[in-house]
Design a protein that fits this description.
Two copies of one chain form a homodimer.
Chain A (H helix, E strand, L loop, with lengths): L5 E4 L15 H14 L3 E5 L5 H10 L7 E7 L11 H8 L4 E7 L2 H8 L3 H17 L3 E7 L1 H7 L1 H13 L4 E6 L6 H14 L4 E5 L6 H10 L4 E4 L13 H11 L7 H4 L2 H12 L16 E2 L2 H9 L17 E2 L7 H10 L9 H16 L7 H11 L8 E12 L2 E12 L2 E8 L3 H13 L10 E9 L10 E8 L4 E8 L2 H16 L10 H7 L2 E2 L1
Parallel strand pairs in A: 1-2, 1-8, 2-3, 3-4, 4-5, 5-6, 6-7, 7-8, 9-10
Antiparallel strand pairs in A: 11-12, 12-13, 13-17, 14-15, 15-16
Helix pairs in contact in A: 1-2, 1-12, 5-7, 6-7, 8-9, 9-10, 13-14, 16-18, 17-18
Chain lengths: 536, 536
């Protein structure tokens, strides 16, 4: 038996059934290109029978000349009707795809309850629909809905449904755990039995309702399945579909199956992050293989071992999937985390050094106050570089005023910033959609003449955490800000019992970090006059 | 063999190794109470040898008289030293716990690379440390670090380490897949082998680096393990620990093992959400069993089948784990809750009533804006009572001004509130330890003459959550405030892109709720003069 596994991606179809996932035709085309570069074998684009967006996708995707097979999704024909006249099946043909997936019932309970027809008619629906696609020269993939639940209740009928699809010429029989309730051992036994009874290649399609979609897919492959259907990041209805980002590397790096090339596997992390960006769904930081924390180390003992040999606490080399190792700094960590971070920055720091002890004491003190640097790499870098006097002063704060006014029908936030930049005093005022937004605007306005790069910096995330909730409105808060200049992304932190001050601190750190190594530009006389600049 | 599985929760210890997870001693105590109510058998509180926060936890947790065994975590003694003099082991004894977990090496590679000692010395470290705990009357759980990696490389040594722990009197031998790289089939085979060779009860501790931590835990139980170590929501280093929220229901509802009672299982969803709130980590919407979308149905065909019989697309009844079905297209899920809440308040509300529809539309609209009433019972009650004109107006806002000033060495927050109470205009100003605190002070100052009860109200909790993080500093925030008058406790919510406005809303709701049914008192002339009150 071959060890080649065919990867069928349904991010663009089943993935969009997930709550909060909505993709335009443009989004789908972008993702399809990325999936093609990753090397998946099938890209299911959508359901041409259900909406116009998907029809547009199928039209436009042709000009991209992707290597992957683009497939359309549909159901078996309506009951008591003809496949040749079924509107959905005709739309699949019209969409011009080389392959299509048809979902059909294999659980007798569903035939009675959901379809409300006879067991015989359902078999005819399967046969006719597959035969129709094959007669039009389209590769036919049969998705056997609820196959495992069906097999457990009535194995003869579930197998009869598969045989009908096979007789009609189906190219793949894909066994679906539609409700996600089946366990790996059951999957293994049932797939083994099916592989023994049918000659058509078998596929697997699982859902994650028991957090077992990945394990179930792997069990099916071990039992003989040779196609895996899933989605990037496991998007899908309810708890999601099987996550291809976990299945592909495990099959390939740990089980000796072959899915995509080693070079393509190195694009896994960037693909996962790209899809999460387009879908506008934040990726869990600890997502296996591809998450930002998948190879991040926090515990001090772990870190000192990792520095001796990364195999001590890493199950694979992160580079194999395009990810990388990160050392987090936190109160749980010993000094080895901080030393390795400093060395990464090229700073002269070793374990037996007064400077090192001073820095570590400072970090511990800040963490005691509520700072957390593991989520604020840029603030940590500033702190380390400052200890070596490597960060020039970008500006000095003279004063900051924030005014929020609310009346019955009006709300206003205004920030007034007075700073000294390069020996000049700048005084700006700005409004915002809330106080922190106003501060952001006022500070940008003050700095942009001196540092035009400010225009490239965008804040992409803002988090507030109350540190000691017992103190209620007088409690300390920790603010985390994430920023990007489209090439890099960095995070900064601020802590205060005043949410405005904490936000200000994180904001200032973000700009300081972005401007490391930059000199203020000369401001022209007209601009000087407009700004009312005063030389000190 | 018994089918009872011992649940060992390490949310408070291994869970806090996760990126972005940081829990204060207060947080840990709150979570411990919730875990105890859920019925877990062991609660690992932390590492008394590593930091002061955990020592505080172990001291304070005693007075809670929890039913679960509180356990402390530590390592085997240092190399070439005595267990009786090992500072970490002594701290465990001092913490007064009835049980402790000691992690020790079982992978020869780690003994050489990380510990840098001999294989013999490592065995002695295990023996001495376990024997020491037992001599002090403490139940000893041996966490065999990297056991599966160790077994695959050198099974004899890995087993020898377990035998040493057994000889020293360990009560449990817990096999750890520390790096999370082992596959379910390997776990099953190795646990089967270990159960055949050792007589001490076996436990399993897995990590999710291949998205297999749940499957691996289940495989170990099937092979004979009788303790499962994991965390709520799968928090933990890198990709997290085994998720108890998926393991417990699967063991219990699908595999005929017994972990907690059926009533306790119904608290699973609320426990998961509570821990996520305290840890301030948003729960993935599609988290198996307990996520908000775990039983949410979006696809039209699915929904019509679900309405015929929920078994068609649900693997279990959501109520078994305390979750509920949601139909995303019609969003009618909350209606019965709202009706039952209103009836509880004695309001005339039934399902077929225009008023009911109006209220539900209003709540849906607010939820769409980002409000969440699950955690804000008082705001929901005000909203329901308002619909029946049952809440008298306590005051009307004329205007509100907030001023925050920061200079080089000074920080000031000042709030100015102008309101109308009982036909009189009141104008107050107050400072605070941050802007929200200043608002709180100014509003109290304005109301207290009319409602002396204000003096009894204290704010006990203040939470800020960014709703749509993508909008960075212009994002909407949800503020939750918890208040008490020492007899009752209530929670209120506010939403705005302006953190000040959201806080104000929640603050006002808190006072309005506390003052329901009260009339303003007559203010005496001297006080009137002092306040500068003006009749309208």
């Amino acid at each position: 038996m071959t060890n080649a596994i065919s990867i069928f991606d349904t991010t663009l179809r089943d993935g969009t059934q997930g709550e909060g996932i909505s993709l335009s035709a443009d989004d789908k085309l972008k993702i399809a290109q990325k999936l093609d570069a990753l090397g998946v074998h099938y890209i299911e684009g959508g359901n041409p029978g259900s909406n116009g967006k998907d029809i547009e996708f199928f039209q436009r995707v042709k000009s991209l000349n992707l290597r992957a097979k683009i497939t359309a999704f549909g159901s078996t024909r309506r009951k008591n009707a003809q496949a040749e006249r079924d509107a959905s099946l005709l739309r699949i043909v019209e969409s011009g795809v080389p392959a299509a997936t048809l979902v059909g019932k294999t659980w007798d309970f569903h035939v009675h309850t959901a379809l409300q027809t006879t067991l015989e008619e359902n078999l005819a629906m399967i046969y006719d629909s597959i035969a129709f696609l094959k007669s039009r020269g389209i590769e036919a993939i049969f998705d056997a809905e609820h196959f495992f639940d069906g097999f457990k209740h009535n194995p003869d009928y579930a197998l009869a449904a598969l045989r009908k699809a096979q007789e009609a010429g189906a190219d793949w029989l894909v066994l679906c755990d539609t409700n996600g309730g089946t366990l790996p051992g059951e999957i293994y036994d049932i797939v083994t039995r099916v592989c023994g009874e049918l000659k058509t290649p078998i596929g697997i399609h699982t859902h994650n309702d028991c957090e077992l979609a990945v394990a179930n897919s792997l069990a099916a492959v071990q039992a003989g399945a040779r196609q895996v259907q899933g989605t990037i990041n496991g998007y899908g209805e309810r708890c999601g579909n099987a996550n291809l980002c976990s299945i592909i590397p495990t099959l390939q790096l740990k089980m000796n199956y072959s899915c995509i090339s080693a070079e393509q596997l190195q694009q896994l992390t960037s693909t996962a992050r790209y899809v999460s960006e387009i879908a506008n769904v934040a990726m869990p930081v600890g997502q296996p293989y591809v998450g930002n924390a998948a190879f991040a180390h926090k515990g001090g003992i772990h870190v000192s071992a990792i520095l001796k040999d990364s195999k001590t606490y890493e199950h694979i080399k992160p580079e194999l999937v395009g990810n990388k190792q990160r050392i987090l700094v936190s109160e749980l960590a010993g000094q080895s985390n901080i030393i390795s971070k400093a060395q990464e920055l090229g700073l002269d720091i070793t374990a037996n050094n007064d400077k090192t002890k001073e820095i570590i004491d400072r970090i511990k003190d800040l963490e005691h106050q509520g700072y957390q640097f593991e989520g604020a790499d840029a603030s940590l870098e500033l702190l380390l570089r400052e200890a070596f006097a490597e960060v020039p002063v970008i500006f000095e704060l003279e004063s900051l005023k924030l005014l929020v006014e609310k009346s019955k029908d009006h709300m206003m936030s205004e920030a007034i910033v007075k700073i000294t930049v390069g020996g000049e005093s700048v005084y700006t005022v700005a409004e915002g959609n809330g106080p922190v937004n106003a501060l952001d605007h006022a500070l940008r306005k003050a700095l942009v003449q001196f540092y035009p790069k400010i225009n490239d910096i965008h804040l992409t995330d803002y988090k507030v955490r109350v540190i000691d909730e017992k103190d209620a409105t007088a409690a300390k808060v920790r603010v985390l800000i994430q920023s990007t200049d489209f090439q890099n992304t960095w995070s900064t932190v601020g802590v205060s019992s005043n949410v405005i001050e904490a936000s200000w601190e994180a904001l200032v750190d973000s700009f300081r970090y972005a401007l490391i190594g930059m000199e203020p530009v000369e401001v022209s006389t007209p601009v000087r006059e407009q700004l009312g600049l005063v030389n000190h």
